[in-house]
Amino acid sequence: MALSIARGNFVTYSAENLEDKYLKQAKLGEGAVGTVFLSKHKETNDIRAIKHIPKSSIKHPERLKNEVSTLISCDHPHIIKIFEIIEDHENLYLIMEHCKGGELFDYILNNKTIQEAEAAMFFRQIMLAINYLHNKNIVHRDLKPENLMFSDMKTLKLIDFGIAKALKTNETMSTRAGTPFYMSPEILKGHYNISTDIWSAGVVLYIMLCGYPPFYAESDTEIFKKILIGNFSFRGHQWHQVSNRAKDLIRNMLIVNTDLRFTSSQILEHSWLQNLTPSIPFPLSTPEVVIFTKSNFLRRVFLFCIASHINEESYSQVRDAFLCLDQDFTGSLSITTLQERLELQFYNENPDYLKEFVFAMDLNNNGKIEYTEFIAGFLQNSMFFKQEKIIQIFNIFDKHGKGKILPEDLQRLFENPNKKNLDFYEEIFKEANCVNNAGISLEEFFSIIIANGVGS
């Protein structure tokens, strides 16, 4: 038996009073089914965006379920993270990453247009997120500047998966969905596939470079007529300074014939989006490589859980290194690629030892390093191991507040508890030298994390 470990395993669900854990600070926005508040975790001081959804306002429960399941399944630097779900009798709360930089829409509004070099950097991030989704056969269906938010001044996150859809192979859709300016011709015709996101992305890029949409009219009916024809121009004065390469990319996205329209991977390979990611050194020392490589499986699972819940500003250099290494734009790294880059930086080290480090990162044993696996491999710095955060992570495993972590607690996170497979989880504990029936206490858990005690 092998574990399939994903970031979604550590998105927690609880039925409790939100105010016991979080302090609401300010209203960030309001949507059709809920209000988003800026909030602070009372113990860790983590700042979160909390989407408050009154159950009475949920008219399409399948959409909400779809949004949550899609967010839980995603693990990418340019897709918003969900950390926790809290429910009480009347409300549902989605605890998510706070994007403090605001919407791309407001950024365009305030700047009128975006300089081409900056637009290319932002657009590459958008397409990395879309390509990741499309590789998972997920279509977003509502790509627009309002659904792209800055987590910092240079990093965009794709949000709002309320009408996203996971597709079967070659599946098409017929439901009209999205926002008028950004709808594709095929959505209006009632028969479309995943390439509808590419059209919407082309509209977003057009607006970024000139400040207005390619298909503008005073009414939705007139907008739709223009979209169906598909004619647009670069005649405005804003386009005089825009390169031919940028215009060429837009032309290959805003094509009515979906067979001729670029795919997300073709967009990322386009000349306009090349040479935008400088080489980033690994924020890691040789002793830290040694500690992680020698760690048992249980400690690496604990580190993965921490990596799932720490704030991105704590590891921005790790994020940038991951994106630099993601040369095929899939949102995961091949073991070979990662090992080769490590050998360049740690050229005095034995290549076999670096290979062991990379394989230790691959908790799924699937030959790829996912984003959170990558982060976990770099969590050797004690700055991540604050007592409040360690307690929070301990409580994810010790869900029922026993004051200890048992093999069945680990099992609960990865499958429905059953006695048949419990032996497998007991073996993981034995490998970590945690063999007594008392389980792992908070003190022992802390020792394991900082790699100087039981099970390290």
From TrEMBL:
Signal peptide: none annotated. Keywords: ATP-binding, Calcium, Kinase, Metal-binding, Nucleotide-binding, Repeat, Serine/threonine-protein kinase, Transferase. Its EC number is 2.7.11.1. It holds the Pfam family Pkinase. Its cofactor is Mg(2+). InterPro entries: CDPK_Ser/Thr_kinases, EF-hand-dom_pair, EF_Hand_1_Ca_BS, EF_hand_dom, Kinase-like_dom_sf, Prot_kinase_dom, Ser/Thr_kinase_AS. It comes from Stentor coeruleus. It catalyses: L-seryl-[protein] + ATP = O-phospho-L-seryl-[protein] + ADP + H(+); L-threonyl-[protein] + ATP = O-phospho-L-threonyl-[protein] + ADP + H(+). Residues 22-273 form the Protein kinase domain. SUPFAM superfamilies: EF-hand (SSF47473), Protein kinase-like (PK-like) (SSF56112). Residues 349-384, 385-420 form the EF-hand domain. Belongs to the protein kinase superfamily. Ser/Thr protein kinase family. CDPK subfamily. The keyword Repeat applies. This is non-specific serine/threonine protein kinase. It comes from the Eukaryota. Monomer. GO terms for molecular function: ATP binding; calcium ion binding; protein serine/threonine kinase activity. It is an enzyme of class 2 (transferase).
